[in-house]
Amino acid sequence: xxxxxxxxLGKRDKGKQxxxxxxxxxxxxxEGETIAASLYAAGYKVAHYTRHTEEARGLxxxxxxxxxxxxxVDGKPDVxxxxxxxxxxxxxxxxxxxGKWGDHN
Length: 105
Known about the structure:
The protein has 1 helix and 10 strands, in the order ββββαββββββ. With about 100 residues, the chain is mainly beta. It has a single domain, classed as 2Fe-2S iron-sulphur cluster binding domain, sarcosine oxidase, alpha subunit, N-terminal domain (Ubiquitin-like (UB roll)), CATH 3.10.20. The mean pLDDT is about 85.
């Protein structure tokens, strides 16, 4: 299942197929869709875990307002994946607690 229309980004036609690496695993993604949409379509719903209680968080507002979809993208923490488009070969990881540059744990 893929998101066909985003409340902010609008309707998106399926673009060129690309490869997204989620925690080392290659996944099919399409140009013009967000990281969160690609992961959700592949069955992944947890983006990060909260700092103190390690509670799972995932796609919530889908418009970039909240921080529930923040992940580490190509080594950069706190990326709002619901409004960040996929790029061929990008690496995405779940974030645990506060993001730190260069720290992927």
